[in-house]
Fold this sequence. Notes:
Layout: E1 6-8, E2 14-16, H1 17-20, H2 22-33, E3 46-47, H3 60-71, H4 89-102, E4 106-110, H5 113-123, E5 130-134, H6 139-147, E6 151-155, H7 160-172, E7 179-184, H8 196-206, E8 209-213, E9 238-243, E10 253-257, H9 259-268, H10 270-273, H11 280-295, H12 298-314, E11 326-332, H13 334-346, E12 349-350, E13 352-354, E14 364-369, H14 376-390
Amino acid sequence: MEREARIDAEGGGTLSAASLWRVHSADLAALGERARLRALAPRRGVDFASNDYLGMARAPRLAQAVERAVARGVPLGSGGSRLLRGNDPEHEALEAEAAAFFGSEAALFFSAGYAANAALLSTLPQRGDLIVHDELVHASMHEGLRLTRATAVAAAHNDPQAFDDAAREWRARGHTGRIWLAFETLYSMDGDIAPVDAFAEVARRHEAIMFIDEAHATGVFGPDGRGLAAHLEGRPDTIVLRTCGKAMGCEGALVLGPRIVREFLVNRGRAFIFSTAPSPLVCAAVREAIRMLADEPRRRDDLTALVRHAERALAPFGVEPTGSQILPLILHEDARTMRVAEALQQAGFDVRGIRPPTVPQGTSRLRISLTLNVTCADIDALAQTLGRVLA
C-alpha cells in the first residue's frame, strides 16, 4: 500500500495529504481529462519553440560583456530593492542607454515583463479612468487589469474602430476620466501585427495614453531593431514595454516613456518597490545586447530570410504567413494538438502545443517560432516530418 503522509490535527485526529489537497488534485485531474495538463519539459531537439529570435542568448559578445563586468567588480546579486541598497550603477547606466537608444525620455528596468506589465496597469490608471485593451493581450496585462482601480473593457482584436467605439460610449455616459489604450504590436500566439498608427490616431482623438507592449517585436523590427512602435517613442502619450529575454537574449524588461512615468512607478509601483532589484550582471548583458541590435543588422536580415523560407515550406500544411517570425498551425482540438507536438518532439523538433486558456477555445495550435538557432535545412526537415505526422 502506498504510504500516506499524515499530520497531527487539532483535536487529536490526523489528515492525509490526499484529504488536504483534494480540491487541487481534482482540478489537475480535470485538466488531464481535457488534455490541458501542463508539465515542465527539458530542452530537446531543434529549436522551434524559443523566443531567442536573433540567436543572441548564447552570443559570445554577451558572455564577454558579463566577463568584463565581473572583472570590474560588478556583483551578481543586487542585495536589496532599488529603493534600499539595491540600486547599482549598472541599473542606472542601462536605463540611460536604453532611453537614448529607443528615443524615450526615461526608462525603468524590471526583473521580468510580467512584473512590468502588471505594475503599469495596476499603478498608472486611476479610479474613474477607462482602460480599453485588446482582447488578446498577454496574461501579464490581465494581471494588472485585475488589480487596477480603473474600469477595464476588452475590444475586438487589432480593431482600432472597436477601441474608438468603446471610448466614445464611455464618454457618452458622462465619464470624464483619462482613457488608456493597451495593446501589443506583435502577438505571441498568432504572430499578427497591430495597426499601430491607427491606434495612435484613436489615442489622439480621445487624448488617451497608450500602453504598447513590444515584447516580440523589439530587436526584430524597426530601425536598429527598435520595434514596430519606434516612431512613437518620445511622445507624452506613449508608454512602451520592451522585454529583454526574447530577441535580446537576456532577461528583464524595460519600461520606456515620459519621466513622470518612471517617477510614479518608483514611488507607487508595488511590483517595483517591493522586489529585489535585478542582477547588475544582467544589466551589463542587456547594455551589450542593445549595442548588438545596432551593430549587427545582419541578424535581422538572416531571420527575415528564414521566415520567408518557412512560409513556403510550411504552406502546404495550412500555415499562413503572419508577417512575423511566429507561425501558428491551428489544429483546433486540444488532444490532437498535443499528439502532433509530441510526435514532432520525438522526431527531434522542439515544437510546442498551445491550448486554452493561453489561446481561445477551439484554437489549439502548434506555435512554430523561427529563430537564428535553426537553418533552412532544419525547416525543410520539419516540413517533411509534419507531412508524415499529419497524414
